[in-house]
Amino acid sequence: MDSIGVNFSIPYLLELLDFAKKENKILILSSHKAVKNLTENYQTKIETLEFICKYMKLNDLKFYKLSDLDNLETVN
Fold this sequence. Notes:
Blueprint: H1 10-22, E1 34-35, E2 44-45, H2 46-58
Parallel strand pairs: 1-2
């Protein structure tokens, strides 16, 4: 999700989130540094993170920490 990510965009992210919900999948997102204003590469705007959190809450998507994934059952 960093500013240098040429493939990152909000519309694409929304597609991924909707796909994960529809297919009962987990989407893992990563970023280097959250900042108020982008000043260099490898940064993500805090505004973007807030948008993702609000979208997930409005669409009943679950949040997981990586450590939570060890305790999930896989379903085939």
